[in-house]
What does this fold into?
Amino acid sequence: MKTRCVGRETIEVNSPIVKHIPVLAETLAEQITLPPDGVMVDSTIGQGGHSYLFGQILGPSAVLIGLDVDKDAILRARSRLKDLACKVILIHCNFSQIIEQVHKQGIKEVDFILADLGVSSAQLSDSKTGLSFLEDMPLDMRIDKRLKTTAADIIKNTDEKKLADLIYNYGQDRASRRIARFIVQHRKNAPITTTGQLAKIVCRALGQQRRRWRIHPATRTFQALRITVNKELENLEQLLDSGPKILKKNGQIAVISFHSLEDRLVKDSFKQNEKEGIYKIITKKPIVPTREEIAANRRARSAKLRIALKQ
It folds into this structure.
């Protein structure tokens, strides 16, 4: 299986559709064995980078199912994957619905499940999504626009204690109490409706508006709000619970996470399933990007890949 060459090809794609570099693509190509007539579910299809990699080795009788909550991502992936030999099915849904959606296609079990949990460059730069503190955008953060609650709603309606707990639990920011206090004080006088407003408030709370920082002071607060708005951890738990129910014997599940909360859920799920004799963990320690990959793609620096095999 000449997946290494395919991996290099994918990484070097300069298509205007694929504007980002799929993280740990070559490593996945080396680790995953996928039969030419297999069924793969890319539960976070994104711009199709990882799926294009594996689609190169799937034959006409194979099926590639791509899921994504971002409707625009589905459109980009459709353009990227249209020339693959395998059957491509793209579905606008959350990966927590993986069993339901796969069964709707008349498929009972799959050979491979992939989840890349990172936020894409396209999503960060999209002003409608409102994820970035580097530009002043509406404070939205809904990757799936069918969701009702925005980040602005949470900032407006959550009491100070619950807001502090949210920032601490999901953002892991030790200054969460102070940040929450500054937010509540500000909203008494004026609503907080943009990412720029919120970022400035967090900087003032931390007293770092003029200092140099390793990461932007608002990073953890924004992470906490994004996780809450999109119910990311709850949905990930459902995906992980679905894996043993839908994978074939010797099927594999690979998850690329980008912060410790996600990675802990993946690690604990894999360990529990191994303890019960359902999984064999392939990656005893998470695989991380090489220095060369991080130099080429800075967004890869916090990525961790874990893989398990259904026994």
In short: The domain at 127-230 is CATH 1.10.150.170 (DNA polymerase; domain 1). The two ends are 22 Å apart (CA to CA). The chain has 14 helices and seven strands.
